[in-house]
Amino acid sequence: MATVTTVVIGAGHTGLAMSRCLTERSIDHVVLERGDVAHTWRTERWDSLRLLTPNWQSRLPGYSYGGDDLDGYMTMPEVVAFIDGFATAIAAPVETNTTVTSVGRSGDGYRVVTDRGEWRCSTVVLATGACNVPHVPSVAAAVPSGITTLTPPQYRQPGQLEEGGVLIVGASATGIQLAHEIQRSGRPVTVAVGQHVRALRVYRGMDILWWMDAAGVLDERYDEVDDIVRARRVPSFQLTGTPERATIDINLLKDSGVRIVGRFSGIRDGRAQFSGSLPNQCALADLKLRRLLDTIDAWATAEGLDDEFDPPHRFRSTAVDSDSLLGLDLSTGEIETIIWATGFRPDYSWLDVDVLDRKGLIRHDGGAVVSPGMYLMGMPFLRRRKSSLIDGAADDARDLTDHLVGYLDRRVRAPE
């Protein structure tokens, strides 16, 4: 059994950011990765996907995007190369192709068991990400046998699909991107829309994330939010990263021929059922976007920047048909494929420490897990609104490294 002060589980951008900060504080550690560095980025993304954040926002501790397309959006091979380059630059102590099979308490520390040996450590960092397992609703079991069902990690490009209609369940970033791509391939697409967060790609001449970064929206802390549990459950922005910096929303999809229906609520006797709440969901998304733009405009005015940018403007409200479809017979052959773009959940099946709540999520305070000496990275709104972005890893890692060092110091000073 090898011994080290800290074991970091996961060599994506969050685990590597933590590694860099631990090295800066002279904390000996190892990073365990089930595959290669940036494994999920390499293996569980569709072919055309680009990063949703602009290249200038790809910033990790002491390392940032070095190309000449600052306002572009990286392809997945470029993201992998970026994270690989970071791992090399910081000489991260990564053990690749090492799968963690269990993590449990051992005395006042932890025992980490892998398929290549065991580690004993004082502290452990869980940096395995929030998107390990696609969330598929239980009603999926009632889908007629002749229909192909996929999750986003299984989808690569439209050519793998049958020629018939496609039902995409979910309208956050993933759902709208897949709907747009598949519709353009000539296949009829229906999108079931539930709760979503509408966004503009460009506002007043700048990327919406530039405004949110400059105005401090992305730096809002978890302890400054009235209801952090609710904030952590908010769906991802309806954003896409395209060379044209296009805004792809429900209006654009509808204008291009995509059929928009309400939230997928079940299947009865082979018939898909959709909620009648579509108008309310879209009105709420429009309202939230207006509030965000109001915040941006107020900040620009307060900073005296109005003359430097395009004037404020608003958007066309989401167009919703008053007679939106409430049911669809899945036995007619109209729908050949269903894609469940219904989110993800983390996988902690290997975690043998009592830290999970009733929904299977880790109980923590800004990344400091309820089990002393255990830390969490890469979850939505972990410490800041930007925590789930590449750009959020550096600040979170620095904060949690400070906490980890303090924890180790307290252990040393504790009386016998």
Features:
five-stranded parallel beta sheet; alpha/beta; 25% helix; FAD/NAD(P)-binding domain; 416 residues
Describe the 3D structure.
This protein is of the alpha/beta class and 416 residues long. The protein folds into two domains: 2-132 and 346-413, FAD/NAD(P)-binding domain, CATH 3.50.50; 134-340, FAD/NAD(P)-binding domain. Helix content is 25%, strand content 21%. It has nine helices and 23 strands. It has helices at residues 13-24, 39-43, 76-89, 173-184, 208-214, 228-231, 250-255, 278-302, 393-413, and strands at 2-9, 29-32, 59-60, 63-64, 94-95, 100-106, 109-114, 117-126, 133-134, 148-150, 165-169, 189-192, 202-203, 206-207, 259-261, 264-268, 271-274, 327-329, 335-340, 344-345, 364-365, 368-369, 374-376. Strands 1, 2, 5, 6, 7, 8 and 23 form a seven-stranded mixed beta sheet that branches. A five-stranded parallel beta sheet has the order 10-19-11-12-15. β16 and β17 (271-274) form a beta hairpin. The longest helix has 25 residues, at 278-302. It is globular, with a radius of gyration of 23 Å. The mean pLDDT is 96.
Radius of gyration: 23 Å
Just name the CATH architecture of the largest domain.
3-Layer(bba) Sandwich
Which stretches are poorly predicted, pLDDT < 50 over at least 5 residues?
none
CATH topology of the largest domain: FAD/NAD(P)-binding domain
Q: What would CATH call the homologous superfamily of the largest domain?
A: FAD/NAD(P)-binding domain
Number of strands: 23
Main β sheet profile: 7 strands, mixed
Mean pLDDT across residues: 96
- Termini Cα gap: 26 Å
Give helix % range: 25-40%
What oligomeric state do these chains adopt? single chain
CATH C-level category of the largest domain = Alpha Beta
Give the DSSP E fraction (strand runs of 2 or more residues): 15-25%
What is the number of domains? 2
How many helices?
9
SS class = alpha/beta
Cα shape: globular
